[in-house]
Amino acid sequence: MVKEEDLIMEVKDLRLDFNTYRGAVKALNGVNFKLYKHEVLSLVGESGCGKSVTALTIINLLPENARVKGGGVLFKGENLLKKSREDLRIMRAEEFATVFQDPMTFLNPVLTVGTQLEEAFMLEERALKAATIAQKHGKNMGYSEFLAMKGKEDAILTKESQVSRGEVRRMAKSLCVDVLRLVKLPDPQRILGQYPFELSGGMRQRAMIAMALARRPSLFIADEITTALDVTIQAQILHLMRELRDTIGASTIMITHDLAVASEIADRIAVMYAGNVVELADTREVFRRPLHPYTKLLMKAIPNVAKPVERLESMPGMVPDLISPPAGCRFHPRCPYVMDICPTVFPETTEPIKEHEVACYLY
Amino acid sequence: MGFWDRFRTGELAARIADFKFTLYLLRRNPLVILGSGISIFFITLALVANLIINPDLAYEFNFARSYAWNNPYFSWGPGTATAPSPPVNYLGTDGYGRDLLQMIILAIPLDISLAFFITLGALAIGVTIGAIAGYIGGKIDEAILRITDIFFAFPGLLLALVFAAIFGRTIQNLAVAVLLVWWPTYVRLMRGQVLGEKEKAYVEALRALGAGRPTRLYTVRAHTNTVLNELVEFGRHNRILVEGTSLVDRGARGFIDAVATVRMHLRILFRHILPNSIYPILVQATLDLGGVILTFSALMFLGFSPSPALPELGNLASDGIAHVFTAPWLIVFPGLTILIIALAFNLVGDGLRDVLDPRLRR
Amino acid sequence: MKLYQYIIRRLILMIFVLFSVSVIVFYLGRGFPEAFDPISQYITPKMPPDVVEAIRKAHGFDRPLYEQYFFWLRDVFNGDWGFSNWANGLPVTEVFFSRFPYTVELSVAAVILTVAIGLPLGIISALKNNKLPDHISRIIALTGYSTPSYWFGYILQLIFFYYFFVWGLPYLPSKDAISGSYIVPRVTGLPVLDGLLAGNLPFAWDALGHLILPSASLAFISLGYLARIVRASMLEVLRQDYITMARSKGLKERVVIYRHALKNALIPAVTLTGLFFAGLLGGALITEFVFQWPGVGRASLLAVFQGDSNFILLYSLVIATIIVLANLTVDVLYVFLDPRIKY
Fold first, then answer.
1. What is the three-class DSSP state of A66?
2. ipTM of this complex > 0.85?
3. What are the pLDDT digits (tens) for B322-351?
4. Interchain CB distance below 8 Å, B31 and C149
């Protein structure tokens, strides 16, 4: 159940193109979804459907040849697309945290884990200063207290308190150790001094999550964080995410192409296809009553261990070319229920069942 | 269906499409266009230079200067050089009243053709050796690497100088001297490429498929060795492995086997690995065109030209050493020409490097 | 294998390389008496032929080549590299090492200039990729790279020495390392340093003035190359995923570039500069010739012209040693710069 006042972000009709040599790739075709506080929303879809691009648009980390062609991203009331780069940078430091797919390439190989983690903390020097001051006054300052302090720093900082830079750094270091412990990394002190290539894949991913936690985000974006890991580690990381969810209290967008992962951790699932959100509902609802033809085919394609079959189901057709995508509903060439109206214009999103949105002419 | 279908589908078509993409990227780079324009200008000039300059002038030029060179009592030099004064002579004259502009134009063919020959020579030698080193590996690779190390440890210009001093000052020797300085680079480059490509999956696949190996195997019974040998010969030319039953042909079979294996390796190397590694070598060669001109003219400038009469840009510049301040045009203009030529080649090479970088292509 | 094992292995290889170089140079230098007659360093034109023959026999120059090589090796291990007639008959070692500090001075100055201009140029090129600053720096770089070194030296002389003089402007000297004689004690052999160490500022200033044009000439040609390499590796690094990650953390762009990108990108630039410096130490022959710089490069030119094989042998071997050692140093440096590399 979601309440309107818990709305933290709304993506409205987002359209995005990439300019390439062969033409404009129409990556996002009007993406719509809402995100509420404390929930985990999973963006699910096959490769190239635009889920990562959506996330990158929100935090404004798109490559140079990307052009937003329409729509808006409302975060806490403000349209992010209209903000300056500097403002967005500050928001990235204070509100958004992103964990990426392949920790080997996403961590700087020549800097130690400690350096990279510390700089995430040092971004909010104000907060650290406040934390140091609070600690001086006898309060124990671990990561959870640091987290609780969010937003209340000004109250502490108004006093004329001098804190040396060394003390601030020590605070940062101790918080580093604390947060590493929080992500269940053994022997945090040693890890701080190691380089990324010295850690295993799962450990690197946890380190990245720690770097995200350091910023006390209100929006947490996890972009295929389990894809590069093998299944056992995947399970561990998901378990960790579930635990942290309650601790941090941020809203999470979980991007994955694996429905199983989504079912493990998401409250609501948004199914994306070729640049659109085609279905959006609670997790159980999506699995129990898939409405959109694409979702239905996806569900059928999942092999059921209990009922083994001779042939695995697959979907007819191929992913559309986004440079010259199909007109209207982009799924219509592969849709078993295609009607005459489908190729004309993209269908509006309707809500045939309460809190279960679909974008399809069938409804 | 037709002759042109070869170009539309298959491997050739892919390469052509790739090439078109390269051209597209190149067209977008204004500096490369500029560089290519200038290069083409100079190359054309090189080809027609001997036609547009009065050939008698060339003769007189050679004659007078060789005379002066061989005559111990004749002090020659730009004593009567005159300054530029258009429209009579645009760039001034040298000590014999020869128009500097015409002499420069005469010198261009030699420089440019030498640039191409030396670069191509160094490339051919270096690439072959590098390919062998990279592909075969092992001791041969080590040995070749050591040899290139030795060449790299040599101060390049000095090696060329010593070589020239010993073997005489002819153009061929000087060209070989410069070539000796340039070839090891290609060995390293090609070896690196081959090593990288060798590990790739398609090479293993090709080897498994037996690229270049005989395609058909026939077992033949022949009555006489002569007949059998004839058939084996036939098989060798047609990629058919012929097996016989007499003892004599076992040697022949072993030989065919060995030849087939070598053919397979050569085929993989030249038809598959080489085209895939050609890009950095191409870039290096274009850049080297400029470098070779610079090195060669530097050799001439230092006094190693076969005769002062030789129309070569570095040689022309060396006239002006003693008279830098009184007759600066003698050095300025030939040097400027070299600069422009080298710059043109380097612009093209640099643009090519940017464009051919596989990671920059989308 | 461990680091010191790697170093030892490379040093052994170096000895092998040096031996090969010495054999080759020896063959070139002694095997062709028409060009490099070894006897020429020990005789004067006035000596009668039988004296010449006696000297030839005494030095063993009539023996077969490989015997000569062993004699030479024996002499070298005793420190005797022979004499150079064209340099007042001084021993070759003295001829070489008296000139070497000047070459060092020139090389150091050239490297400083190259890095000081080339490095920022490359970084700016990368940051403003395909915009105007990039195009301008590319033209500067390529022009420098295409300039004949002898030509540029003379152009500089023409402008800053001749025309400045004619126009009444303060002009820079166009030859030698110092005007006058070496009046300060020779501590390092580099005039500028020695002047500073002795507190003799006018001398140091004068030496500096002499240094400007030749090092500028060298630097102009090579800073382009450095700038291109820096640009290329910066662009490569900036495309990496960890830069996106750093940006997603909300770090200031400046921090992303300096802390994350540069450290990765500079590795090839550092190695290149090291090798470049080693090459310069071999004596920039042409620049030294153009500016009449009393360094080792110009000496080698004179040696070749005079047919002095002794000097060329020493010169080649010293340069080869420097280059091989520089390669080794650079490879070892890699270990410290890039924590992923281990031997």
1. strand
2. no
3. 777 777 777 888 889 899 889 888 888 888
4. no
